[in-house]
Fold this protein.
Amino acid sequence: MSQQRQSPLVKVAALLIAAVVAGVWMYTSRGNTTGPDSESAKQPAAAEIGDCVQNTGSQDSPDMEVIDCGDAKAEYKVASQGLAECEPGQSRYEQTRRGRVQFSMCLTEVGAK
């Protein structure tokens, strides 16, 4: 008996299937919230009303971290969480994942800079 060779079309199909499976896995694991570098580990989920935060990111891509209100680096104080609208003079911070809001809070400036 002779061994049949796989046709090039079967090999290409197998590679395409493997690429699709790898792509789906990469897309779905991008929002992994279990590792120490995940977005949920960075987000201020522990921020509560009355806590102070500092933006360690940029204006376009903020990254809020909870810090002591007595620290000179404290920029904002959490006024409320999860409300649809903030009061006049407050800033809104939202943590999103794939375009969906996961966490939001209204912030009041601690002092004039």
